Amino acid sequence: LAAMKITVTEDKSLPPAQKIKISSISKHVDQRVKVQGWIHRLRSQKGLAFVVLRDGTGYVQCVLSGDLANAYQTLSLTVESTLSIYGTIKKLPEGKSAPGGVELVVDYYEVVGLAPSGKDSFTNKIQEGTDPSILLDQRHLALRGETLSAVMKVRAALLAAIRRVYQEEAVTEVTPPCMVQTQVEGGSTLFKMDYYGQEAFLTQSSQLYLETCLPALGDVYCIQESFRAEKSHTRRHLSEYTHIEAELAFLTFDDLLAHIEKVISKTVTYVLEDPVAGPLVKQLHPGFVAPQVPFKRMEYIEALEWLNENGIPNEDGEKFKFGDDIAEAAERKMVDTIGFPILLIRFPVEIKSFYMKKCVDDPRVTESVDVLMPTVGEITGGSMRIEDTQELLDGFKREGIDAASYYWFTDQRIYGTCPHGGYGLGTERILAWLCNRFTVRECSLYPRFTGRCKP
Ligand code: 4AD
C-alpha cells in the first residue's frame, strides 16, 4: 500500500541527460545519460531493483534504489517492457561485474510499453527447454534471446566482412533476379511458381547470371537468396538460404582454389577483428581458431580411400566405389576426424552439375571443389565452367535440359569465351561452423524448411 503512494518523478534540477546507445556506455562514465530499450532481466533485492536493459547494441545493468525501487510502477515492471531510463553511469566497484564494466544509477525512468504479466508473460512463452517447434512459432520473440541475437550480429558482420574482401579483390557486386525460368542444380529441388500464366522457378543459384556478367563487369559476386525444395530434414538444409556466389574470369583451377581459401580465411579474420562480432564468436564458440591457408587439398578418389580405410560405408552400407556420392554423414565424419578445413576436389562428372569443366588429364572427373569444415561439412561448392559451346550443349543433352531456354547462357561461350570459374557459399553453413551451432536453422532469421514457412 505504501508503494501505491510513491510516484516516479524527475528531479528537474539534474543536468540534462544525453541520449546514447548502450554500446557507448563506457565512454560516458560519471555523465547523466538517457538510454531506451527492453527489460532483458529484472530482479529486486534488499530494497534495490536491478534492471538489465537491452537496446540491440548491448546490455546495461541499471540500479534503482530508494523510492524509485519501491514505487508501485517499479514493482509492476515486467520482462520485455520498454523503458526510457535516465541516470548516471558509474564504474563498477572492485569485484563486481556487469556488461561494459559499468552500471547505470537511475534517477528517473518512463515506461514506454508495459509487457504482459502472468500467463501471457514473455518468460512464460519463451524459456530454456521450450519445445523447438514452439520456439519456431515464437521466432519473433525467441530472436530477442542472447544466443540467437548474437548469431544474427555475427551474421551481419560476416556479410560486411565478405563484401570488404570482395572490394579488396576488385570483385563487383550485382543483384541477379530471384524469379527465373532455368535450373542450375537439378530439377528435383526447384520451387515452381505461376508467372503470369507461365511456369517459373525461385532461383537455386545465381551462377548462370553471374557468368553472363563477366564480359561486362569482370569478376562479380552476389549475396542473394537461393531456394531449394529439399525434401530431407537435415541439420544443414534450408528451403531458403542466403547464397554468397562469385564468378571469376581468366583463371586456372588452382587460381580458383587459392581465391576461395583466401576469401574464407580473410573474411573470418575480419569477423574476429570486429569489435562487436569478435567477442560474440568467442562467447558462442570458445575454442574457435581461424583456419590457416593453404587448406588441405584432397582428391575425391583419395577421400574414397580414406573412407574405406576408416570403415565408413557408403549410403548402401558398402565400401565406397568410384561414382558414389559422399553423403552428409560420411563427409562430416571424415572432416571431423581430420579436424581442419579440406578442399575436396575433382568429383566424377556423373555426380556433378552439367556446367562443370572436365579435367584435362582425366575426363572422368571435373575441376570441381567442395570446401569442408569440421562440424558442418560442406560450406562451399564451386568449379571451373565449361567454356566450349559444343561441350556445354552436350552437357545439356546429358542432363535432359532444353538448351533453347539457356541461349543467353550459351551466348557467353559464343561471344568471346574465356576460362572461368566460381563458387557458392552457404551463409548459414559458414555461421553454423563459426558460431558452433548444431543446425543452420539457428543461423537464419526466420528459417524455412520442409513444412515451415511461418512466421
Ligand atoms: O553446391 P551448391 O548446390 O552449388 C551451387 O549452387 C553452385 N551453382 C554455386 C556456384 O558455383 N555459384 O551450393 C553451394 C553452397 C553449398 O556449398 C552450401 O553451403 C549451400 O550453398 N547450400 C545450402 N545451404 C543451406 N540449405 C540448402 N538447402 C543448401 N544447398 C546448398
TrEMBL record:
<keyword id="KW-0547">Nucleotide-binding</keyword>
<protein>
    <recommendedName>
        <fullName>asparagine--tRNA ligase</fullName>
        <ecNumber>6.1.1.22</ecNumber>
    </recommendedName>
</protein>
<dbReference type="GO" id="GO:0005737">
    <property type="term" value="C:cytoplasm"/>
</dbReference>
<dbReference type="GO" id="GO:0003676">
    <property type="term" value="F:nucleic acid binding"/>
</dbReference>
<keyword id="KW-0067">ATP-binding</keyword>
<keyword id="KW-0648">Protein biosynthesis</keyword>
<comment type="similarity">
    <text>Belongs to the class-II aminoacyl-tRNA synthetase family.</text>
</comment>
<feature type="domain" description="Aminoacyl-transfer RNA synthetases class-II family profile">
    <location>
        <begin position="152"/>
        <end position="447"/>
    </location>
</feature>
<dbReference type="GO" id="GO:0006421">
    <property type="term" value="P:asparaginyl-tRNA aminoacylation"/>
</dbReference>
<keyword id="KW-0963">Cytoplasm</keyword>
<keyword id="KW-0175">Coiled coil</keyword>
<keyword id="KW-0030">Aminoacyl-tRNA synthetase</keyword>
<keyword id="KW-0436">Ligase</keyword>
<dbReference type="GO" id="GO:0004816">
    <property type="term" value="F:asparagine-tRNA ligase activity"/>
</dbReference>
<dbReference type="GO" id="GO:0005524">
    <property type="term" value="F:ATP binding"/>
</dbReference>
